[in-house]
Write a structure and sequence with these properties.
Largest sheet: 4 strands, parallel
Helix content: 40-55%
CATH class: Alpha Beta
Order of helices and strands: EHHEHHEHEHHH
Strand order of the largest sheet: 2-1-3-4
Strand content: 5-15%
Distance between the termini: 34 Å
Structural class: alpha/beta
CATH topology: Rossmann fold
C-alpha cells in the first residue's frame, strides 16, 4: 500500500505557543479551528492547528475560564489536554505564533532555524498583508495550492519585518498578549483580542476564496 503524502494531502501547520498551554495558546488554537471549520472542506482540510506551552506540563486540562469563554464563542473545548513545547513540534510547524516576545525567544532558543516562520500573534497579524501584497484571484502568480499560498504569505510577512512599526506608549510590549488576570472578564477580554488577531491571520493565510 502506498502511504506517501501527495501534494493535496500536505497541510499547513500552525503552532500557537504560550507559557502553560492553559489559556492564550489554547484560545488561539480553538478559535482558529472554529473559523477553519467554516471554510469549504477542500480548503479546511489543508490546515492543521495545535498549541503548546514553553513551561507547561503534558496532559493537563485547560483553565476552566478558558473553556467557558470558548464555549460562549461556539468553539468546543472538549478532548483537549496540554502539551509541553518541543523542538520536534517547532520543526513540524509552517508558522509558529506566540503570545509574547518572550515565548518567541523561547521558541528560537529551542530551534533557531525557525526564525523566518516564528512571530508573536499580534506581530504576524500586523505584518501579514491581508491581500497577499496586492494578489487577487486574477493574479497569475497567486499559487493555486492553499499550502503554497499560506507559505507565500509567511514569506511576505518576513519581508515586511523591520519595515513596519507597531504603536508604542504602553508598559506592555506592543506585540504581546499578556496572560489574563484571574477573572472571567479578563479571560473574555483576552479571547476577544486573540479572536480579532486570528481573523486577520486567517484572512491573510487563506487568500481569496
Amino acid at each position: 500500500m502506498n502511504t506517501s503524502i501527495t501534494a493535496t494531502d500536505r497541510q499547513f501547520r500552525i503552532l500557537y505557543v504560550c507559557v502553560g498551554n492553559l489559556c492564550r495558546s489554547v484560545l488561539a488554537e480553538h478559535l482558529t479551528q472554529r473559523a477553519i471549520t467554516e471554510w469549504p472542506p477542500a480548503l479546511s482540510h489543508r490546515f492543521h492547528v495545535h498549541s503548546a506551552g514553553t513551561r507547561g506540563r503534558d496532559r493537563q486540562p485547560m483553565h476552566p475560564y478558558t473553556a467557558q469563554v470558548l464555549t460562549a464563542r461556539g468553539a468546543s473545548p472538549a478532548a483537549f489536554t496540554t502539551s509541553r513545547l518541543t523542538a520536534v513540534a517547532i520543526r513540524g510547524a509552517d508558522l509558529v505564533l506566540t503570545a509574547t516576545v518572550r515565548e518567541r525567544d523561547d521558541v528560537l532558543a529551542l530551534h533557531p532555524a525557525a526564525v523566518r516562520r516564528t512571530f508573536t500573534i499580534n506581530e504576524f497579524a500586523r505584518l501579514a498583508p491581508p491581500d497577499g501584497g496586492g494578489a487577487h484571484e486574477a493574479d497569475p502568480d497567486l499559487p493555486e495550492d492553499p499550502v503554497a499560498l499560506a507559505q507565500q504569505r509567511v514569506a511576505a510577512a518576513v519581508r515586511r519585518r523591520g519595515r513596519t512599526r507597531c504603536a508604542t506608549g504602553s508598559s506592555v510590549a506592543p506585540d504581546d498578549i499578556p496572560d489574563p488576570d484571574r477573572t472571567l472578564d479578563a479571560f473574555d477580554d483576552c479571547a476577544t483580542a486573540i479572536d480579532r488577531a486570528v481573523q486577520v491571520i486567517l484572512h491573510a493565510l487563506s487568500g481569496p476564496r
